[in-house]
Every structure is written in C-alpha cells, then in structure tokens.
Amino acid sequence: MRDLAELRKLHSSKWLRYPADVLPLHVAEMDFEVDPGVRAVLAEMVAKSDLGYLGPIPEVPEAFIGFAQRHWGWTPDAAQIRMTTDVGVGVVEVIRALSKPGDKVIINSPVYHSFYMWLDELHLTTVDAPLIHESDVWRLDLAAIEAQFKSGARFILLSSPHNPAGRIHTLEELTAIAELSNKYNAYVISDEIHAPLTYADQKFIPYLSISAAQRRGIMVTSSSKAFNFAGLKAAIIVTQNQEMFEELNAMPEANHWRASLLGGFAMAKAFAGGDKWLAETMTQLDHNRKLVKELLAKYLPDAKYVIPQNSYLAWIDISCLGLGDNASEYLIENKKVAFNPGTEFGDQFGAYIRLNFATSPEIIEEGIKRLAS
Ligand SMILES: Cc1ncc(COP(=O)(O)O)c(C=O)c1O
C-alpha cells in the first residue's frame, strides 16, 4: 500500500479537505490502489482520447448481472437497468419522479448523512424510524417503520447494507419491509452501494431478489464504492417489475447522458473482472475491522464498537472521552485526526464518530492513538 507521503499527493476530497498535518479517516474512500484491470481500461481510453459522451453500454447490465449471479445468486433483468450519474443523483431522480413536495420519506438513523441532504433538496419531509441497538446488533425497527407508513409516509430510503452501522439487513427484515410497502402502497428505494463489500461470513440479500419487493422496489447502486473510484461518476437504477420500470419513465432521459463514459466502462470492467481484486481487498478489510477492535481495547478500552458485517466504516461510541457533540471538531483541531461526527448521521448521535479503516494497519493505529491521546 502507498505510504502517507504518496497518499498526500492525491487530489480527492479525503486528501484535500483538511490541512496536511491532519490524518484523514473520514470520507468513504479507500487508500488502496484501484484494480489494475480497471486502470488499464481507463488508461487506454485516456491514451486514445476516447472521452466523449456515454452512449449505449450493454456491457454494464451484462457485467452487473454476472456479478449478482456469482455473489448473490440473483439474476436481475438486463432491460430494467438504467444508467445514472451516481447513487446520489439516482436516488434523487427516482424519488423526484415518484413524489410530490412535502411527501414523507422514512430513513433509519443513524444513517448516511447525504440521505438528509437529498431529501431536503427534493423538499420532502424526512421521518425517522431509528435502528434498534440491542446486544451489539443494530437492526431495523419494523414497528416504528409501520407506524410511519400508517401516518402517511410514501417512501422508505434504505441503506442496505447499512452505513454507518455496517449491518446486513436479514431476509426476514427485508421481506417485512416489502410486505409493509405493499400494504401501504409505499415505495422502497434500496441504496445498495456497499453490498459488494460484504464479509465472507455474511450473506447479503439484494432487496429486489425478494418477489414481494419487486412491484414497489427500486435498487440504486454502483461499483464505485467497492472498487474505489467514486470520482468516475456512474451508477445504475435497477427495477425488477415492468410496471415499476415504466413508472420510472417519468425520470429525465438525460439521466443516462449525465453518467460519465469512463465511469460506465470502469463499472463494466469492475463487475465483470474485479472478483480477485475484491477478494484480496476484503481480506485486508477483514483484518482491519478486527484490528480496530484490538486497538480500541488497547488504547481506549471504554469506547464501544461493534465489528461491522459489511464495508470499512467503524461506528464508535466515544462518550467515554466526554467530548460532547463537537468531538470531531475538537479531534481535528487538537489531535490532528479527522473522523465523521456522529451528528452527521442523526442529531442524537453526538456520542459517536465514524472511522474509515480502508487503509494500512499503521495508519489505523496512528489514528486510534491520536483519538485516545
Ligand atoms: C450509503 C451510501 N450511498 C451513497 C453514497 C455515495 O454514492 P455516490 O457517490 O455514488 O453518490 C455513499 C458514499 O459513501 C454511501 O455510503
């Protein structure tokens, strides 16, 4: 892996947002190099000045279907996979097409901070059905979700797997959501961007693989998170029911052209040929997710952290430090280490930080030492 001096020369938000003496463990980018196969596709396109608009790209559905079959035993319908700019744009355009201003959308806090911004952008009302946290498990509160549907919510925006809790929703939970959505005529938008980053000891269930989910369910996903090229801007909107697909014809056609050519072909390459790179990456992340536990036990034993079932984000309760809601700001200024503040994921989570462990063991240790100091 690249050392800190090399990483500091990168152009992404992770490396440019804070001054150079701050160790950045916040935004969800990995410090690992991108799969050489993907880099070769990109290098060749750049070398040939092959940088126009995105046209027809059957390679993406083909590659995604292969990936879904190999990893999840599920076969999406190629004719119902649409391109979009990124997962954020995809979710916003899907909901914009199906909603009217003021509609209520359920989220499950603590949840990925952009969900709040996307719904504000659409002038919708965000209603919360917080996850239940019991015996080291974060899970969906089905009763709270039903209560929100009963009081008129027309959508639920799921983070599946869940960022920042690292939770894989179970088949039972997802089936219950599907049944509720049918009972209350509500739509389920399932953001599955973290799904390929599921650890070998877990089983990820694509929402649309559940038949009860298909009439009112939409998946939005991309290879960008798992294969580490968020800057390339391409994602897909997936349905698995003809009526649902046609309802989304209300979205602007420009969705497709607003995705990037490089992103589209990188996605095709990653989903088709990235399994080996992904398996190696997951081995490193598996080591790291456990290392965070060991290092917290060593340096900050009163912090609370549940090892995630998916992805590379550690959701840590640091109330033992008594830093209050502004812990992250304090840590950036005084300890020169950046995490995402818990309050980004929901007002009531000031006791938490989110730490990105997709980096080297040395950098993780340095970050936790700075936190504990
Ligand atoms: C749950 C979730 N959805 C979406 C995104 C962002 O996706 P995109 O960059 O494709 O909009 C992230 C980024 O971390 C995420 O964690």
CATH topology of the largest domain: Aspartate Aminotransferase, domain 2
Number of helices: 14
Question: Which stretches are low in confidence, meaning pLDDT under 50 for 5 or more residues running?
Answer: none
* Strand neighbour order, sheet with most strands: 2-10-9-8-7-3-4
Major sheet: 7 strands, mixed
The proportion of strand residues reads 5-15%
Q: What do these coordinates show?
A:
The strands form four sheets. Strands 2-10-9-8-7-3-4 form a seven-stranded mixed beta sheet, sandwiched between helices. A four-stranded antiparallel beta sheet has the order 11-12-15-14, with helices on one face. It has helices at residues 4-7, 13-16, 36-47, 59-72, 87-98, 114-121, 142-150, 171-183, 242-247, 254-257, 261-273, 275-299, 327-335, 361-372, and strands at 23-24, 81-84, 104-107, 125-128, 132-134, 137-139, 155-159, 187-191, 217-221, 235-238, 304-305, 313-317, 337-338, 340-341, 352-356. The chain has 14 helices and 15 strands. The chain folds into two domains: 4-31 and 275-372, Aspartate Aminotransferase, domain 1; 43-273, Aspartate Aminotransferase, domain 2, CATH 3.40.640.10. The radius of gyration is 20 Å and the shape is globular. Helix 3 packs antiparallel against helix 11 (261-273) and helix 4 packs parallel to helix 11 (261-273). The model has no long low-confidence stretch (mean pLDDT 97). The chain is α/β, with parallel strands linked by helices and 373 residues long. The protein binds pyridoxal-5'-phosphate (PLP). Residues 28, 86-88, 112, 159, 163, 191, 193, 222, 224-225, 230, 235 line the site of pyridoxal-5'-phosphate (PLP).
